[in-house]
Amino acid sequence: MAIYAADTVAAASTPYLPFDVPIERFIQSISWGPLVQVFSALDWIEGTRQQLLGVAGILLVAAVSWRAVPLMIVAALSGGIYTLTATLINRPRPSGDLVNVIRHTGASSYPSGHVAFFTWFLILLILCLAVGRLPKAIVAGLWVIAAFVLLSVCIGRVYMGEHWPSDIVGGLALGLGWTSLALSVRLLSNPALARKN
């Protein structure tokens, strides 16, 4: 959360940071091949679709372990922090004069709500549904898949011209920081992570 605070202060002071343009141009210069389709598919999960996916995830967790629902709901509150920050900072999205812009969804650029959402969502789905319930090899495979999805979201948002790299850092810091805080509250995490005998 300290990284999120520092990145937010920096984002509030300038439309983009010194490293944003060169990193974005570098990512956009790479031929990603079929991964571009993955980027587009993940980009499609926005707004109402993202909210519905979040609700579906919470309902799935409730069906398996209702005691994990409070943890999921508290983690989902990172969406409120995102909305407040985006409204206050109101950073413009990358300019077509500086980088290639394939698609803009509107609204402001900082932080990346996509990245913040997928961070808490994927981590808690695995912790609440798989860890302690499935064989360790399968859980390890799920972590690899989650890492691939999250990395694809991060790269894809920059590749599409939706966000600056510093927006991605902000989204990751918010998602990881808020999830870590939620997990540190034993009243939430102990019931959620209790193992089946």
Q: What is the chain-wise order of helices and strands? A: HHHHHHHHHH
Largest sheet: none
Radius of gyration: 17 Å
The portion of residues assigned to helices is: over 70%
Question: What would the keywords be for this entry?
Answer:
71% helix
Notes on the structure:
The protein starts with a helix and ends with a helix. The relative contact order is 0.21. The chain is built from ten helices and no strands. The longest helix is centred in the C-terminal third of the chain and has 24 residues, at 136-159. The mean pLDDT is 93. The protein is mostly helical and 197 residues long. The chain has one domain (35-92, 104-193). Helix 5 packs antiparallel against helix 7 and helix 6 runs antiparallel to helix 7 (113-129). The chain is globular, with a radius of gyration of 17 Å.
Summarize the structure.
The protein is 71% helix and 0% strand. It is built from 10 helices and no strands. The N and C termini lie far apart (35 Å).
